[in-house]
Specification:
With 343 residues, the chain is α/β, with parallel strands linked by helices. It has helices spanning 38-46, 96-99, 145-148, 151-164, 179-190, 203-211, 247-254, 276-281, 295-304, 323-330, and strands spanning 2-8, 11-16, 26-35, 48-49, 52-53, 58-59, 63-71, 83-86, 89-90, 110-111, 128-132, 136-138, 171-175, 195-199, 216-218, 237-242, 257-265, 285-288, 314-319, 338-342.
Length: 343
């Protein structure tokens, strides 16, 4: 089979790899669509992020969907021909965190397309991938495979919303409107946010945020005064979803969060220096959010029922053989939102 493999920064190739038949409890999925994520772009441009670096060729990709081709022994709830979204997380189900229901914190996690382990965990931008049957979630006929591949990033935002607590009637700010920020807007709107303000420094993400239900979309560079009103009386917003991973965005947004408000940090851009005196004096709840687990099936269910429409987030679908073109396009925030590879 052919796969999209990173060998070094800017060295992305279409390689031929061995086809893997399913073993006991596994299924082989013929991939239909795969979304390019920010982590994929870090591998493409820089060979990794933080201390994580590519040490061997690695297939990229973890936002995927496809059709089951084969099932292994012991698999009775899935059959060939079923269309599925594939959860890229494979926790061990045995460590202390798995036993506590915190599968996203698994001590022996295997996550598609990750160089955090060595040998690396190969990704799923390939013509087929063989996975644990528990990772394959059937999708209804109402969803395209492109929509189904959005289950992974949507899961990230559903887990972030869980960290924030109830959003009904709340005033919500989303900073950074790339695919994750845009999906955070969708999730907050679905959860009943009364006011939903989005910020970004690029025009296309802001236009998408408006289409997805943001009550106001602001470019703080072009409209530096637009956010000042929200800082009145120690702040306006009940909840901040910080999706840019940018220190300046978070520091500026803290002035807009009311005392006792909640900040959920989704974006990861490296270590930050934070004004702890502000966080302490305003009694702000600062919460991290990392991946997901149960939210993956919930994401498929919500899309299937039409509760969340991710189609406006998908900007481009490009044949996987043109992966370099697709990665370059995905790197340009003024031209693209979510770029997907088609297999």
């Amino acid at each position: 089979m052919r796969a999209v493999v990173i060998h070094a920064p800017k060295d992305l190739r279409i390689d031929t790899l061995p086809d893997v038949p399913p073993g006991d409890g596994e299924v082989k999925v013929r991939i239909g669509a795969g979304g390019i994520c920010g982590s994929d772009l870090h591998y493409y441009h820089h060979g990794g992020f933080g201390t994580v670096r590519i040490r061997q060729p690695m297939t990229l990709g973890h936002e995927i969907s496809g059709t089951i081709d084969e099932v292994g022994a012991g698999v009775s709830h899935l059959r060939p021909g079923m269309r599925v979204a594939v959860n890229p997380s494979r926790p061990c189900f045995e460590c202390k965190y798995c036993h506590q229901g915190m599968h996203n914190q698994c001590l022996d996690m295997h996550f598609f397309g990750s160089a955090m382990r060595f040998p690396h965990v190969q990704g799923a931008f390939a013509e087929s991938v063989t996975v644990d049957a528990r990772q394959a979630v059937p999708v209804p006929d109402s969803l395209t495979l492109g929509e189904a591949a959005m289950a992974e990033p949507l899961s990230v935002c559903l887990h972030a919303a869980k960290q924030a607590g109830p959003l009904f009637g709340k005033r919500v700010l989303v900073t950074g409107c790339g695919p994750i920020g845009a999906l955070a807007v969708l999730v907050a709107r679905n959860a009943g946010a009364a006011e939903l303000v989005a910020t970004d420094v690029a025009s296309q993400p802001l236009a998408t945020a408006r289409r997805l239900g943001a009550t106001r979309a602001i470019n703080p560079v072009e409209e530096p005064e637009a956010l000042k009103a929200y800082a009145a009386d120690k702040g306006t917003f009940d909840v901040l979803f910080e999706a840019s991973g940018n220190e300046a965005a978070l520091r500026g947004a803290l002035d807009l969060v009311r005392p006792g408000g909640t900040v959920v940090q989704i974006g990861v851009g490296g270590d930050m220096k934070l004004p702890m005196n502000v966080i302490v004096a305003k009694e702000i709840n600062l919460r991290g959010t990392f991946r997901f687990h149960a939210e993956f099936e919930l994401a498929v269910e919500m899309m299937g029922k039409g509760l969340i429409d991710v189609k406006p987030v998908i900007s481009d679908s490009i044949p996987f053989a043109d992966a370099v073109k697709a990665f370059e396009l995905a790197s340009d925030r003024n031209r693209a939102m979510k770029v997907q590879l088609v297999f």
